[in-house]
What we know:
The structure is a homotetramer. By secondary structure, the first copy, chain A, is α/β, with parallel strands linked by helices. Chain A has 2 domains: 2-63, Alpha-Beta Plaits (2-Layer Sandwich); 83-334, Alpha-Beta Barrel (TIM Barrel), CATH 3.20.20.70. Chain A has 12 helices and 14 strands. The first copy, chain A, has helices at 11-23, 51-54, 109-122, 146-159, 170-179, 193-200, 216-228, 256-263, 272-276, 279-292, 318-334, 347-350; strands at residues 2-5, 27-32, 37-42, 59-63, 83-84, 91-92, 98-102, 126-128, 162-166, 182-185, 206-209, 234-238, 268-270, 296-300. In chain A, the strands form 3 sheets. In chain A, strands 13-12-11-10-9-8-7-14 form an 8-stranded parallel beta sheet. In chain A, strands 2-3-1-4 form a 4-stranded antiparallel beta sheet, covered by helices on one side. Chain A has a two-stranded antiparallel sheet with strand order 5-6. In chain A, strand 9 (162-166), helix 5 (170-179) and strand 10 form a beta-alpha-beta unit. In chain A, helix 3 (109-122) packs parallel to helix 4 (146-159) and helix 4 runs parallel beside helix 5. The radius of gyration of chain A is 24 Å and the shape is elongated. Chains A, B, C, D: Residues 1-67 form the DAHP synthase ferredoxin-like domain. Chains A, B, C, D: It holds the Pfam family DAHP_snth_FXD. Chains A, B, C, D: Keywords: Transferase. Chains A, B, C, D: InterPro entries: Aldolase_TIM (IPR013785), Class-I_DAHP_synthase (IPR052899), DAHP1/KDSA (IPR006218), DAHP_snth_FXD (IPR041071), DAHP_syn_2 (IPR006268).
Amino acid sequence: xxxxxxxxxxxxxxxxxxxxxxxxxxxxxxxxxxxxxxxxxxxxxxxxxxxxxxxxxxxxxxxxxxxxxxxxxxxxxxxxxxxxxxxxxxxxxxxxxxxxxxxxxxxxxxxxxxxxxxxxxxxxxxxxxxxxxxxxxxxxxxxxxxxxxxxxxxxxxxxxxxxxxxxxxxxxxxxxxxxxxxxxxxxxxxxxxxxxxxxxxxxxxxxxxxxxxxxxxxxxxxxxxxxxxxxxxxxxxxxxxxxxxxxxxxxxxxxxxxxxxxxxxxxxxxxxxxxxxxxxxxxxxxxxxxxxxxxxxxxxxxxxxxxxxxxxxxxxxxxxxxxxxxxxxxxxxxxxxxxxxxxxxxxxxxxx
Amino acid sequence: xxxxxxxxxxxxxxxxxxxxxxxxxxxxxxxxxxxxxxxxxxxxxxxxxxxxxxxxxxxxxxxxxxxxxxxxxxxxxxxxxxxxxxxxxxxxxxxxxxxxxxxxxxxxxxxxxxxxxxxxxxxxxxxxxxxxxxxxxxxxxxxxxxxxxxxxxxxxxxxxxxxxxxxxxxxxxxxxxxxxxxxxxxxxxxxxxxxxxxxxxxxxxxxxxxxxxxxxxxxxxxxxxxxxxxxxxxxxxxxxxxxxxxxxxxxxxxxxxxxxxxxxxxxxxxxxxxxxxxxxxxxxxxxxxxxxxxxxxxxxxxxxxxxxxxxxxxxxxxxxxxxxxxxxxxxxxxxxxxxxxxxxxxxxxxxx
Amino acid sequence: xxxxxxxxxxxxxxxxxxxxxxxxxxxxxxxxxxxxxxxxxxxxxxxxxxxxxxxxxxxxxxxxxxxxxxxxxxxxxxxxxxxxxxxxxxxxxxxxxxxxxxxxxxxxxxxxxxxxxxxxxxxxxxxxxxxxxxxxxxxxxxxxxxxxxxxxxxxxxxxxxxxxxxxxxxxxxxxxxxxxxxxxxxxxxxxxxxxxxxxxxxxxxxxxxxxxxxxxxxxxxxxxxxxxxxxxxxxxxxxxxxxxxxxxxxxxxxxxxxxxxxxxxxxxxxxxxxxxxxxxxxxxxxxxxxxxxxxxxxxxxxxxxxxxxxxxxxxxxxxxxxxxxxxxxxxxxxxxxxxxxxxxxxxxxxxx
Amino acid sequence: xxxxxxxxxxxxxxxxxxxxxxxxxxxxxxxxxxxxxxxxxxxxxxxxxxxxxxxxxxxxxxxxxxxxxxxxxxxxxxxxxxxxxxxxxxxxxxxxxxxxxxxxxxxxxxxxxxxxxxxxxxxxxxxxxxxxxxxxxxxxxxxxxxxxxxxxxxxxxxxxxxxxxxxxxxxxxxxxxxxxxxxxxxxxxxxxxxxxxxxxxxxxxxxxxxxxxxxxxxxxxxxxxxxxxxxxxxxxxxxxxxxxxxxxxxxxxxxxxxxxxxxxxxxxxxxxxxxxxxxxxxxxxxxxxxxxxxxxxxxxxxxxxxxxxxxxxxxxxxxxxxxxxxxxxxxxxxxxxxxxxxxxxxxxxxxx
Lengths: 352, 352, 352, 352
């Protein structure tokens, strides 16, 4: 931490600040400058409450220096974390680019299977679908719950897709942990620390979405909450932040991808569907996300968006998903990464 | 809902949009204008998914019209809601201005009693203190939990102050409901719908803090979640929002007070402590909050801020709280409201 | 400036950074800490380009310390600046609270005189009116130009009101300087440095509006531009900033008032009309601005808002202005300040 | 425009609103809905001031419908605008992707030539360099002015690069128009309407940077100002907006590219240098900008960034620019666009 004194601070004031620092069990380092004196502080393990110092006489401002995160940091773990899925060659964070696709909500077994078949055949290692929907209105469709989880478990068996779905509370977490392969924590719950800790006690990977107004530090600290409980398999996800801009539902902040990669070893994927909220912008921003260097995309696809019970306006048509896959594959290649090819769907399955 | 067609939209395109609207069981009203045609939609009960229409050929944009909230709305209940506390004459939302004061966290019995005595004697009907602290870092002080709740229950008995404290999850909610008088839902949990619904099933008043990036509509919808479960005693709380401005921790948005009062019958209080994050700004913004016409203030007070385990830098010294009370009382009078006088503390208590 | 090294930075890397700092003619002060080493820098007169250091091997981040402003700073001038107007007892920044009122635009001589009479009789020392309007659309009413300035000069003579009006470019600046008493620089031009410098070469006070997304530092640096040319009579004006919040046109950031007062000796006034954009919020926020401790209000008043050529929706009716004056006077008194009483308008004038 | 009445609005109130609309010379269309009545308005040519209606009794809100822009709109001109440069095959907005590169500021003839040679040989059709620098501090380097313009004119002759440089005021505009090929209007001046109109009276293409907090509508309206004066050669430029996010200097909003392309026929380029403010993020975001489908990149390159007089920390090293060119070329190819190859620099020139 650094204390910046006012230009006209007296030697007595500087002395008093140094003594206060020592009383906190820390070591002050006065740096007399041309305009003013700054006082460096060393010896602190964690964060210091600036309140102890900021209001002392002669103090202009107090600047926090050491960052609070530990386990998420590259300073603790240099090499990239790669999330692996036993029994498959699907990974997140490695050379292979991850494609996570599916409907916003699981509405019916038929709808879920129809979309799953489309995305599996177009190329996706992961299937996303909402069983529990955090909706702004209590009167809107809230999801099918466990029934949806069972449908997705069937989809895993039939199409070999890993299941990614959101847990909105501790109760849902138990069921998601039971049926799914990746536990998603939504943007609205990014600072629901109770839920983060519970997810940290599970052993399945956690996909953590960035809060709508989360700074990079808060985002990484939310991951730190999960890791501090022993679950080191965290996948970060940029899904757009809230700004004054009104031409998209959120403003997709792609610059956080290299920023995260500089500070942390955790993989990061991008959600261009929620990041834009408009179907006609999902493909361009999806391409951009691949180009910026993220580890995967999570996109909403629906075979009949016009009939979707939620987020229809941002869901891709299957043929649009195929286009995105093709363009993503070519752009990923420029960065030396590979995008999964579609699997062969047998007649038997196709006829279902 | 209103559909705005492009200037060069053809009659066929307009016709197609009208048919799609009818297929949704709604009634289209084409409005041929000078520049373009707009199509009004009536007959919808709830929200319509714009996705169904926005991508039709010839459509320029789709504008949502009817607001989704019901129970929170003045259109449903015209007169102001006043929260009453049996066995006391304390109210929130009526002519009396409510003062809620106390430390950020309950640290020890001594600290809690010392602050309680200060605020009770200076004038406060409510005591706030954190038992469960949602901290950005998992390594920071997380609160004393039930022990803190027991201390606050004692404070209610001794000083006659009603207790306001935060519930961070369902487990904490049960305990807060058992010991406290007002259940606080923090800003980070404003869209933790599972927690909102659980609070809605309690019978104690809920103080709902605005999320750091919540729009007025999202804020009111969070209250709607609580009310939709049957608990109509909701107190809204503005505590600052996140903006680009870096001279305060958050930007206190006082304009939401008259905005809420126009749309809703619920009371709204303001938190200038979190709203600014800096002690030297709490009094000026506290005065401003009274002047804008809110129903109460919730402020952090600590008898030894320099030793506070959390938020020390934004806690008022007891003498500053007295100053705020005095200025608030004079400003409230201008608006025809009364601020509570301090209670007499007997020697007996004072000597503790 | 402070350089924060990575935890695993080598002694060689730390050494290399120190050498680079010395090459820049500055003095490095390594501070070995528990987690990492930080390097304080002294000897710089102005700002240092972080680019020189941030990308050196082993550097985690670079933190700017010394603030760039000089003339605006309290460190240079301790006591408050009070703007005086020769031949009147009107001041801005002193004990007297300043009321600046008038229509958004000067539309006709009749309209201007009608509004001027209303605000003069209700109590105002300053008349505001747009001669040059910066409108978002090139097709919207752009103001009457010099004709409006002449009308306002007449208003000064008749009602003894000082004239405040905006200069949108150097050409308009010459005319505004000729006819008006205070040169207003609008929010859109807060970083139009060419215009700021030109205003700095004038000898009339300048009312500088905060840019819609200006930080406190940028705001003060814009004032520094004016002062650096020799004009020290600068009045700052908060008029709302752009945020995600959509219930008002802008979000009025009242916390900047105490923040400015802490750093600078310049007076600061508040514009609740543009700050909210809605008539029904001007009075509550106007009251709040007085309570927060600003030096004056600038408000839009129109005798027939429904017929206003611009900003009608945020203009007060004369009777609303009277109410605001009365409430402002009572609240200002709480802060030990006085609000001007209305002047007596003779029949003679009233009949014009 | 659409007027939304309150649910309990009376027939008389609805009638009164309709009459007010008719008094404004417009036509009201009442739409009785399930919950409330909405009133559509037709007959308006330009924008209507909502103030006339919003405060009438029974009105819940007023919604603006018709967009104010004309000349920038695809509704007026369907096909993409392509900017051509006589005597070259350089274009902006067509199939060829435009690369605009150079130093932040022109510091010396040697520096400018050194950078120009690098970018010309790596592949660029345009050279950018600041002659007039809008700096936050009046004490910072402000640019060489006309001397810099003369140096750039030489660079055009020697390397065949078209010159792009900023005009900060009308005076500078005359000189920029005389020496350069593209007149740049900076973000700080995006709403300096006086300057926009003056640029609109020139016949050279104008590169208009998005203001730091400009909405899509304001951005397009600024272009409308230029076009309304007769200059239809406008190039839009996204350069990052201001948000709460603190890991980059600005938040690059790539979603505005498809948003602009949907509404307007004007070309749009992206500036990843100012958009991120950090060298290590320029290449990833530059790649993303190409992938999102913009028409060109404008990047800062310096042969000795550590010695740059401005923005050194965001300037690419020449070899980094070569890498960006190569990656941009491959990604552009995926979108069916071509990126210019580097020109051959003769020994003669290279030896300079």
